[in-house]
């Protein structure tokens, strides 16, 4: 079979690499990919942007691609799945309407509320004065979220009234996020531990992926600015059997059922960002309509079943006839970013990578090739990922791998996995 992976990050490198391990997979194309996908066996980069849907459609038709897997949210929110399906092409992901679960926080929060799915208390606003009045009533800390996609920068946790007012004015008056910030959600600050709960959803069944935990803050001890994610591991010990059952029975199943009842059936990866209370109760922080980055990197290290085949099963609604098998070991990935990320950072630094043995893998994100030289080409650049007998062992092996990488402009956290250990 031929597989098309859409996107260019570490998540997409991991997806393409996982599919390419299997003999049944003849070839994997990645659009547009990065230096990591460019140098893998059986994987070829295609110079088409992830949001250029017409060209992706033509390519998939011309190459007789058997299954397309979408990494990032933007093409999903633009309706890539609707357009592929219209052309009779197999693609795994939610339709444009279903992708609103991630594409609009106002849609998501109203959906959760009317379906009694646990989430933080909230109100939606388009008027700055009313929003500020609400914050004054509720007090701080409080969380302000831009309605639309804002590349991970649209959530502000305000610890003072001034910060809250600034965030509200930024979005509603000064248009900082453009259309994405023309409405916002203000919600209660939740305490607890976060986990990423990701499932595959087909028309009539749900297949949970291995559990995982991300590290969103840039610096050690979960300090510093919010980022796309600085490291992740799988499984997440915080997801006990009780938490797993709560996540499935109170969040995932009711969400899938309610989407169906409301006439916008959801298929694709569904990622619930959960806040887990010490009593095991869970609340939805957000939904993503795709896999997480960097959660996918450790998850793919552990997945022993061909992902492309699972996706084909999902598009044919035969997911219940198959199973996903997982490596029992723990996997941990540390993101190497460019110094200065997420604000301003340098690109074009040369990087030299070690030759890795099984159980270790450096996934690329913001990299490009110049001749045979790998150069940094983004904020998050690499994800050094290892399998270990337990979390501590996986952590040690991932940091050993980092030590073998030569790149002078890198920045990474040195405590990925600390919560689980
Ligand atoms: P989101 O993009 O909605 O997941 O928000 C980004 C990050 O902000 C989350 O991963 C949490 O760490 C934090 N966050 C979002 N909403 C809340 C909340 N209601 N209470 C506490 N932290 C939150
Ligand atoms: N790692 C967080 C995300 O993918 O949204």
Produce a short descriptive summary.
With 421 residues, the protein is an alpha+beta fold. It has helices spanning 10-20, 35-38, 53-62, 73-78, 80-86, 100-103, 105-114, 128-138, 161-173, 241-261, 296-302, 307-315, 391-403, and strands spanning 2-7, 27-32, 43-45, 67-70, 91-92, 122-125, 142-146, 155-158, 184-188, 193-201, 206-208, 213-214, 217-219, 223-226, 231-234, 268-276, 282-288, 330-338, 350-351, 360-364, 367-370, 373-376, 380-388, 410-411.
Structural summary, described in words:
- The structure is a single chain.
- The protein has 421 residues and is an alpha+beta fold.
- Helix content is 30%, strand content 27%.
- The chain has 13 helices and 24 strands.
- The strands form six sheets. Strands 12, 15, 18, 20, 23 and 24 form a six-stranded antiparallel beta sheet that branches.
- Helix 1 packs parallel to helix 11 (296-302) and helix 8 (128-138) runs antiparallel to helix 9 (161-173).
- The chain is globular and about 60 Å long.
- The two termini are 40 Å apart.
- The model has no long low-confidence stretch (mean pLDDT 96).
- The site of adenosine monophosphate (AMP) has 15 residues, from strand 7, strand 8, strand 9 and strand 17.
Question: Which terms summarize this structure?
Answer:
single chain; 421 residues; alpha+beta; six-stranded antiparallel sheet; five-stranded parallel sheet; binds adenosine monophosphate; binds glycine
């Amino acid at each position: 079979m031929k597989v098309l992976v859409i996107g260019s990050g570490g998540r997409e490198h991991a997806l393409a690499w996982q599919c390419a391990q299997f003999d049944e997979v003849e070839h994997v194309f990645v659009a547009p990919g990065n230096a990591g996908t460019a140098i893998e066996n059986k994987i070829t980069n295609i110079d088409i942007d992830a949001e250029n849907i017409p060209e992706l459609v033509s390519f998939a038709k011309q190459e007789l691609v058997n299954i397309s897997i979408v990494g990032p949210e933007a093409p999903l929110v633009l309706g890539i799945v609707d357009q592929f399906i219209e052309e009779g092409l197999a693609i795994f992901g939610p339709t444009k309407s279903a992708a609103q679960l991630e594409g609009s926080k106002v849609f998501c929060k109203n959906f959760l509320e009317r379906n009694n799915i646990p989430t933080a208390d909230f109100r939606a606003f388009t008027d700055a004065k009313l929003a500020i009045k609400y914050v004054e009533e509720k007090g701080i800390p409080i969380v302000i979220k831009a309605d639309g996609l804002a590349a991970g920068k649209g959530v502000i946790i305000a610890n003072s009234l001034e910060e809250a007012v600034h965030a509200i004015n930024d979005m509603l008056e000064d248009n900082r996020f453009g259309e994405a910030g023309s409405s916002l959600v203000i919600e209660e600050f939740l305490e607890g531990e976060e986990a990423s709960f990701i499932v595959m959803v087909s028309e009539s069944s749900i297949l949970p992926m291995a559990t995982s935990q991300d590290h969103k803050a840039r610096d050690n001890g979960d300090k510093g600015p919010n980022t796309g994610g600085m490291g992740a591991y799988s499984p997440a010990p915080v997801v006990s059997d009780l938490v797993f059952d709560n996540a499935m029975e109170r969040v995932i199943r009711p969400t899938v059922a309610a989407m169906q009842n409301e006439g916008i059936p959801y298929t694709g990866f569904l990622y619930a960002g959960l806040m887990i209370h010490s009593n095991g109760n869970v609340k939805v922080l957000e939904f993503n309509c795709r896999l997480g980055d960097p959660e996918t990197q450790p998850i793919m290290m552990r997945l022993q079943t061909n992902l492309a085949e699972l996706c084909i099963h999902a598009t044919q609604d035969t997911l219940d006839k198959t199973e996903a098998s997982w490596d029992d070991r723990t996997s941990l990935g540390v993101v190497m970013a460019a110094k200065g990320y997420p604000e301003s950072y340098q690109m074009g630094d040369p990087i030299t990578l070690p030759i890795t043995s099984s159980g270790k893998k450096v996934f690329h994100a913001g990299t490009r090739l110049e001749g045979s030289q790998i150069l940094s080409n983004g904020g998050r650049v690499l994800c050094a990922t290892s399998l270990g007998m337990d979390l501590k062992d996986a952590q040690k092996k991932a940091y050993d791998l980092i030590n073998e990488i030569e790149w002078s402009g890198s920045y990474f956290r040195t405590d990925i996995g600390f919560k689980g250990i």
